[in-house]
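Here is the promised in-class demo. Please do not try to memorize the tokens; focus on the logic of going from shape to residues.
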């Protein structure tokens, strides 16, 4: 009876915990840093979280929200970084309306997240700040990509059995005078076999999926090669395949974020995973939700290292201190100190060796110059005195010339 009760309690616990985690690595181990912010956008709701405890799923992977607006759809969220690290990062939000799309620049509101240890939940649609611009268009937007190296915004349109992409240059970033200039329109009468495009502004790469030889592979290309790859058909570099199935919904900041939904009746299971860019084991979380609670838009942006410190420290931001924190986390401080000691020892040995060489040269110079002026003007007498000294030291070898028999027997 007791065993049956225990078994029943275990079953009830499993059913009650709708969010489960199969953790192999922590978020810090996946990202190789403790300076990170996880910013997840699910329709109109924004989750911001840091310091995720090992073994516990991040909030956006265990609790989902749906916020539907009849006037527009959220179709893109992009991290805007200052390449010179002078200003904290911004978020570019792109919404698709019935006859236009809008671009809005927002500064992440992270004051609460750094004051409190828990995650923060906010809504972009309750905020009035930020710059907004609207561009008219007729087709429905499929996805958006931003190239931080050239400030190009790419908008892929959803047209059945066709490929169509618009290219815009975003001028005056980090100002209130942002302008969009359309520089290209690319279309063809066949759909592209490459999908799930994502961007990584830290590694300056685009990623996509493609089915090759009945296997779905993950590919990468450098930013700047998007048109050649998506439109002209140039092949990217295959880096492997993801461990778990699902839509690639984030690749920025050192991890791949995938989302897979499986609907059974009125219940939908959402399986999401976070995998390092090395494609080694990460972790996966599952949550059961009603169909009305499943967000249509689900993306993850990761802010890390110097960008993280700029958001955290504000006017007190110090790049060297931020880098010191990162080295300390990775355990490189003691290694760096030992390397410095070896360098100083090497420099000391080289200096000592040079001193010894100079000492030998000096001694040689002294010996070569230690000759009197008289010895220089009477070299024969000097040679004679040397002979006498040798004769006294070695009498058997150097005999006195007066004692030698120098007579010559001319007849024998």
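The designed amino acids, position by position:
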């Amino acid at each position: 009876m007791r065993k049956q009760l225990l078994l029943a309690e275990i079953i009830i616990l499993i059913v009650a915990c709708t969010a489960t985690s199969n953790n192999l690595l922590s978020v810090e181990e996946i990202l190789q840093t403790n300076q990170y912010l996880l910013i997840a956008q699910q329709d109109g709701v924004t989750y911001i979280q840091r310091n995720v405890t090992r073994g516990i799923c991040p909030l956006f992977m265990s609790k989902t929200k749906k916020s539907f607006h009849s006037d527009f759809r959220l179709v893109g969220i992009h991290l805007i970084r200052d390449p010179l690290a002078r200003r904290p990062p911004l978020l570019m939000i792109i919404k698709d309306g019935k006859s236009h799309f809008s671009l809005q620049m927002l500064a992440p509101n992270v004051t609460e997240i750094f004051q409190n240890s828990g995650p923060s939940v906010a809504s972009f649609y309750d905020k009035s700040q930020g710059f907004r611009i609207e561009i008219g268009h007729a087709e429905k937007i499929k996805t958006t990509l931003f190239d931080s190296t050239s400030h190009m915004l790419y908008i892929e349109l959803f047209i059945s059995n066709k490929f169509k992409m618009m290219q815009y240059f975003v001028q005056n970033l980090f100002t209130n005078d942002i302008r969009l200039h359309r520089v290209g329109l690319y279309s063809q009468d066949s759909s592209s076999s490459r999908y799930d495009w994502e961007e990584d502004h830290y590694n300056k790469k685009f990623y996509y999926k493609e089915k090759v030889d009945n296997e779905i592979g993950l590919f990468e290309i450098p930013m700047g090669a998007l048109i050649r790859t998506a439109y002209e058909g140039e092949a990217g570099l295959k880096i492997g395949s993801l461990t778990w199935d699902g839509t690639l919904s984030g690749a920025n900041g050192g991890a791949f974020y995938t989302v897979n939904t499986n609907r059974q009746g009125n219940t939908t299971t959402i399986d999401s995973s976070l995998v390092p860019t090395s494609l080694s084991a990460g972790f996966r979380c599952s949550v059961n939700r009603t169909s009305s609670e499943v967000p249509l838009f689900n993306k993850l942006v990761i802010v890390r290292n110097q960008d993280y410190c700029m958001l955290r420290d504000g006017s007190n931001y110090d790049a060297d201190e931020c880098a010191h924190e990162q080295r300390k986390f990775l355990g490189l401080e003691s290694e760096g100190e030992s390397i410095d000691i070896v360098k100083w020892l090497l420099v000391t040995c080289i200096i000592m060796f040079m001193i010894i060489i100079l000492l030998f040269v000096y001694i040689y110079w002294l010996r070569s110059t230690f000759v009197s002026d008289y010895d220089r003007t009477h070299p024969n007498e000097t040679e004679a005195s040397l002979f006498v000294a040798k004769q006294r030291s070695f009498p058997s070898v150097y005999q006195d010339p007066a004692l030698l028999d120098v007579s010559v027997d001319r007849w024998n």
